[in-house]
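Q: I'm building a small set of examples for a reading group on sequence design. Run inverse folding on the following structure and report the sequence directly after it, with nothing in between.
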């Protein structure tokens, strides 16, 4: 039955039943948060048994009212209420926090019928609710969105800043995506990958929501702005997050193609852009596929595998090496994750030496990803070009590339070194 409006007396009885369920669940699990669950029981019971427009037989009904228990540790009250309301069999309540259970220690929207938003990290829910409400406005729907926040939770800065700061934008984007929109959340890479990382991990990647994060100012490219604005770690950080797809396009043509491919892809995508102008590498559109690197130049003596702004510098290095009689292949590895292992291994087999080049820290980015594939399959001489264990400084982009070891002359030296190690 879609709607159910219990009387106040009936609501009191139902709340008492739900409180018993909560105690039983937490005792059986041997862990949980009884206080926060019991204190929210009357509100949650009233919402589900009187106020909200819902249909338990159709938990993802697009016109349903939304509910977020932002203080996700109190999920026993949500689970018990959903079970009593008929979203799933009450027998599941005895499996709380067990391996394989549909009832995780904190709410998981992909495991439990009726859970509208994953929660657990305090301070996300209000922003996610704002995203859901904005989605209703965009889609011309009249559903209501309800969010419960804990009194301790309201001390989180993100609750005070709802809908203003980078982290709120990410959680709001998650809320929008949960209602079927494809939000593009954009800010500087340093803030997308660090300030908002909790939201990016817990509210976007964990529930695998269809959010596109468009991060500008990646690498040490916003040179004049200095270290606080240089997103030199974003590729490494995002690569460590499960469910992540990461694209770092090399030029204007592939930037446009990457944005369109990201929009078509179902799931989170992180797009990493530079700030400073980069030359056009592709005069015309190419077949652009997420996870498929592009060989931009053939060669047989060594291969440079580069991404984003360093593809242009890799090509300049290859052209200079040609004048010395050295024949270098160049691969534009625009997708860092999933990595095109096939093309990389082919290059290792055919050219016998690899140099990677990235405007990103030396740890955990392209160089490491390529090394992992090579070492397990075709170990060949290899050298990584990247930002060493240091912060950079203010300065013009090209001067910074030179000073921090990323420019064509450095790539040339690295290629000569790996070729020497081949013999
Ligand atoms: C960002 C974050 N920090 C810390 C925690 C650990 N934690 C779980 S419950 C809790 C207290 C929450 O208090 P309150 O919001 O008042 O909820 P209630 O007392 O109603 O359960 C904390 C700090 C968390 N889940 N998320």
């Amino acid at each position: 039955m879609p709607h159910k409006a219990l009387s106040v007396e009936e609501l009191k009885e139902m709340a008492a039943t739900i409180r018993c369920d909560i105690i039983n669940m937490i005792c059986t699990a041997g862990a949980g948060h009884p206080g926060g669950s019991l204190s929210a029981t009357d509100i949650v019971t009233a919402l589900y048994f009187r106020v909200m427009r819902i249909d338990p037989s159709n938990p993802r009904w697009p016109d349903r009212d939304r509910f977020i228990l932002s203080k996700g540790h109190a999920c026993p009250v949500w689970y018990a209420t959903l079970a009593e309301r008929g979203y799933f069999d009450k027998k599941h309540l005895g499996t709380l926090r067990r391996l394989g259970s549909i009832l995780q220690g904190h709410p998981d929207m992909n495991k439990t019928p009726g859970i509208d938003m994953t929660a657990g990290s305090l301070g996300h829910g209000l922003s996610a609710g704002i995203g859901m409400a904005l989605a209703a406005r965009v889609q011309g729907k009249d559903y209501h969105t309800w969010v419960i926040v804990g009194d301790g939770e309201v001390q989180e800065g993100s609750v005070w800043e709802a809908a203003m700061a980078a982290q709120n934008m990410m959680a709001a984007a998650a809320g929008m995506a949960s209602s079927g929109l494809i939000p593009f959340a954009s800010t500087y890479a340093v803030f997308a990958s660090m300030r908002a990382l909790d939201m990016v991990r817990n509210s976007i990647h964990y529930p695998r929501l269809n959010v596109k994060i468009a991060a500008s100012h990646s690498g040490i490219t916003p040179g004049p702005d200095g270290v606080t604005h240089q997103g030199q770690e974003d590729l490494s950080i995002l690569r460590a997050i499960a469910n992540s797809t990461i694209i770092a396009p090399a030029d204007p043509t592939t930037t446009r193609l990457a944005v369109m491919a990201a929009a078509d892809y179902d799931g989170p995508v992180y797009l990493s852009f530079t700030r400073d102008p980069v030359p056009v590498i592709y005069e015309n559109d190419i077949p652009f596929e997420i996870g498929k690197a592009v060989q931009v130049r053939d060669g047989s003596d060594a291969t440079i595998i580069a991404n984003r702004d360093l593809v242009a510098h890799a090509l300049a290095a290859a052209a200079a090496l040609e004048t010395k009689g050295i024949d270098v292949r160049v691969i534009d590895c625009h997708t860092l994750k999933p990595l095109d292992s096939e093309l990389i291994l082919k290059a290792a087999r055919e050219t016998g030496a690899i140099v990677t080049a990235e405007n990103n820290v030396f740890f955990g980015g392209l160089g490491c990803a390529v090394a992992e594939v090579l070492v397990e399959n075709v170990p060949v001489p290899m050298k990584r070009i990247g930002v060493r264990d240091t912060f950079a400084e203010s300065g013009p982009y090209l001067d910074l590339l030179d000073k921090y070891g990323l420019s064509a002359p450095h790539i040339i030296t690295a290629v000569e070194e790996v070729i020497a190690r081949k013999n």
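Residues 94 and 153 are 28 Å apart (CA to CA).
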